[in-house]
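Hey, I was hoping to borrow your eyes for a little while. I've been staring at a protein lately and its backbone has me curious. You're getting the sequence in one-letter code plus the fold written as C-alpha cells. Would you mind checking whether the C-alpha cells look sensible for this chain? Here's the protein in full, and shout if anything looks odd to you:
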Amino acid sequence: MKKILLIEDDQVMRENIAELITLTGYEVEVAENGMIGIEKTTSFKPDLIICDIMMPELDGYGVLYILSQKPETASIPFIFLTAKSEKDDLRKGMELGADDYLFKPFDSTELIRAIESRLKKHNLLKKEFSNNKQGIHDFLNEAQKILSLEDLTQKAHQFSYSAKELIFKENEHVHFIYYVEEGQIKTYRYNDDGKEYITAIFNEGSFFGYQPIFEDRTYNEIAEAIVDTKVLKISKDAFLSLIYQNREVAKKFIILISKNLSNKEEELMHMAYSSVKKRVSKKLQELLGDKDEISILRSDLAKLTGTTKETLTRTITEFKQSNIIETDGKKIILKDREKLQKMDLFW
C-alpha cells in the first residue's frame, strides 16, 4: 500500500482530504504544520507528499526546500495545495522542485488523478536502465511518457558513419548529443606542433558531445569514427527537456552518462600505472568486445595506449609471436582470447 503524507494546517480540510485518500486505498499520515511534516517524513517514509503552502511554523516552500536538501527525501513526489494562483507563486514552487499544484477549491477526482499520475511517473523512474542500446531506447521511451514530450524517440535519429568520417569538428555549434549504438568514436585535438592527440575513445553504449551544452560553448575537439559506426543523435532541445523538466529524469540520465566518466577515470589510471603490454592488452579487449577482429590504425592504437608507434609495433609483434593475434593490414584478428586476458593480468 502506497503511503501519503498530508501537511495541512486547516483541520476541516485536513480531515476531509485524509478521509478521501484513505477511501481510495492509500495509507495516510497527517501533519498540522511544516515542522511536524518534516519530522513525520523521516519516520513515516511517504511515497508522496501533499502540502499546503500557507502554514504557521514553516510554510510549504520551506518544507520543500529542507526535504530537497536531503538525499533520502529529495526525490519524493511533492504536490502543493494553494488558494493562490499568481504566476510568481507557481514559478517559486517549481524552481524549488514541486511536481504539481492543486488550487483550492478542487474536487475529489482532480486530487486522486494528481496523486495517481505522480505515483505512476515516480514508479517508472525507479526502473533500472542498462547502459546499452536497448537500455537507452527504454529510457527515452519512459522519459517521453513522463515528460509528455512530442515523440521524443522520433527526435533521436540513427546515423551511420564510415571509418574516418567526421561526426563534428572543432568550433562547430552544438545541435545534438550522441550515443554510440555500434562501433567506436574517437575525439581528438591538434597540439601546437600540429600533432594529433586523442582526448577520448567512445565505444558502444557511450554518450558523448553533451559537455558543450552545459558549458554553453562550441565543440573544442573533433569527433571521428574509428570504424564503421552507428550513432543515435538526440536533439539539443530534447536533451535539455530531459534534464530540466523533471529532476528524477535528470538524475537517471546523469547516472547513465556518469558511467562513461567513471570508465574514463579508470582508463587514465590504468594508462598511468600499467606496462605497455598490459595497456595494449586491455585496450584490445575493450575495442574487440565480443568481436574477433577490429580495424584500427597503429598510430591510433598507439595514442589510445599512451605509447609510441614503434613501441606499439614491437608489442603487436610479440602478441603475434605468442599466437594471441594475427594482423592483416589495419585488421587485428583475435586468435586466443584467454591468452590476451592473461597478458592483462600478469604484465
Notes: The longest helix spans residues 247-273. The first strand starts at residue 3 and ends at 7. Residues 149-153, 268-273 have pLDDT under 50 and may be disordered. The two ends are 56 Å apart (CA to CA).
